[in-house]
Amino acid sequence: MGLLIDLFSSKERAPAEVVIRVDGSEIADLYPFLLEVAVEAGRSEAASATLSFETRRNELGKWTVQDAGILKPWATIVISAAFGSRVEEVMRGYIREVSLETPQDAGAAQVKVQCQDDSLRLDREQHRVTWGSAELPYSDQMIVSEILAPYGLMADPDSEAGQDGLVGLAQDDTDIKFLKARAEFNGYELIFREGRVYFGPMRLTADPQDTLLVYAGADSNCLSLNVRADGHQADAVAYDAPAASGDATTPETVRPDLPLLGTEHASSQAAGLEPFTWKLSAEAGADAGRLRALARMKANELDIHRLQGEGELDGSLYGHVLKAGLPVPVDGLGDWLSGVYYVDSVSHNFSPAGYKQRFRLLRNAYGDNLDSVAGLGSRIAGVL
Description:
By secondary structure, the chain is mainly β. The protein has 5 helices and 24 strands.
């Protein structure tokens, strides 16, 4: 059993527990000393975790936590949330750092364990590789699969191919830095989760996660949610496309091509004002195709930030691990702001006070579109 989170609720829902496995074995003997588990997971940075333990010294001079021989750098670690008999993974990776804190008060001594997802292992060795030849051109998808295989990882089946026909693509960096560069080049996300690596664009049309319910009476799972509509996000991105020869340039404009997460695009085009366009800075050596791709990436990133939400979930009431890089429906915010959002990041916190998930959401449209999402109906039980 993990660290039990008390749940004072009349509903019959399983209280959440944190379950931690180090090198494949659950650290049951250390649970009595576990004070807090904090995990940061997002779509743009490596997932990380901090485990805080109180530690005591016995009459023989041995310490309960650091002398247990369990928590050591480069040990594998899997952190999960258990909801009754159902377990969902929060993060997996490696212990990166173990530190002992011994203040003047011996009763306040603590051991802090810093962890990082599987991407940490890909940052140990620099490689010089040339990918693709005239006889055997490569795609980004082929590169990702070949890089991941020696680490026992595999590409997520939802990943996309990226650039194709690559010849003489040089790598002179660690594997993770090279993969991040390729993801950025393609305008892709790079997410390590559950032994798989997603390499692809934002998954706005993926199957949605369970609904976040606001002011839904006994069915509520959101403790708080604040949403703001940011009107100062440009509607298009412009750049100067170089001619095939010479120094001449042609102005070009690119608009976002993301699917709408609502019924009405949250742009300012209908306001009757002058065009709202962001100018892309010149990139040395970039051809017209590359500049257009960069403009598209920037336009899409501006577009998805038109609505931004921040809130907190009661993890036990929600009953799931909210995941970054996937859509989630939000109900209870009214006709204008309810609908499907995209999860940008989630901060998980396990402590004796409960299992809480703080999250950040993004959206590019207004309007309640929950009726159009397969498998979803209105689950609002009532308004408090």
